[in-house]
Amino acid sequence: SQAREVFDEVLYHLLILSENTSDFSRLAAVAQELQYYDWQSRQALRRLRRDAAGGGAGITLGPLAEGWEAPTGGRPLLEITGLTLHSPGLPPRLLVRNLSVSLARGGLLLTGPSGAGKTTVLRAVAGLWLRGSGAIRRDMDSRRVLFLPQQPYMQLGTLREQLLYPFGDSELDDDGLLDILERLDLGHIVRRVGGDLAATRRWGDELSLGEQQRLSVGRVLVHRPALAILDETTAANDVAHERTMYECVSKACQAFLSVGHRASIEAFHRQKLTLLGEGGDGRWELQAL
């Protein structure tokens, strides 16, 4: 009868609902997590706007003007002029006062005590920090700047995609990518997945922090940026691996800024910028190496 058909249809759909209850539960959990991330991002945006409003006139980040030369002569890749930086939070703490430095080629090493503002300087150069004043001018577009944090970002995807991050493309073929992994003592990772760069893993769990850091330096060899910014990028590696990583960076880039603590890495830099960080007065010292 028609009533029987309707009953069977309702029963059928109820069975579908019961069989997919776990999927609906997972979907609800994902929706809740996305809502939380949305809230976090809105809070972060509010903090950025508040910090920009309360931390000075704002940092000017732009290209070098035609014919610009450094005070020491020649055209730099990076020119920092009168940079003053403040910490987040209220009241803001002065980190760096009136910093001026030029970088044409080679490396600039940032040192100083914890909390002195080393990472903040790097983020400002990368365009990731707004709180402060002064000017940062770069003789390159943003695609030719690569920022390497201490904890590299490992995206969900293939081993090939880890090397191609963040731009997603390269002129290198797979043989070139494999050669980069071997140079950074990561060949065992390739062998572990049967030599397949298309292998997909949770690379953040699969690789140790030291391996992740070496892979992030592989990204420098893939993309060959004009400027690389290294924020303790080698900290989880031993001295031998660290030496290899700096050799790769110094050959692949025209210039680089880095934060590190081992005296052995000074040999890879031409200048050392020390943030004194004492008393909150923003003092700094610059010396040739």
Automatic annotation (TrEMBL):
Gene3D superfamilies in alphabetical order: P-loop containing nucleotide triphosphate hydrolases
GO molecular function, one term: ATP binding
Superkingdom classification of source: Eukaryota
SUPFAM superfamilies: P-loop containing nucleoside triphosphate hydrolases (SSF52540)
The entry's keywords: ATP-binding, Membrane, Nucleotide-binding, Transmembrane, Transmembrane helix, Transport
SMART domains: AAA
Positions in coiled-coil regions: none
Domain spans labelled ABC transporter: 78-289
Family statement: Belongs to the ABC transporter superfamily. ABCD family. Peroxisomal fatty acyl CoA transporter (TC 3.A.1.203) subfamily.
Name assigned to this protein: ABC transporter domain-containing protein
Organism listed in the record: Zooxanthella nutricula
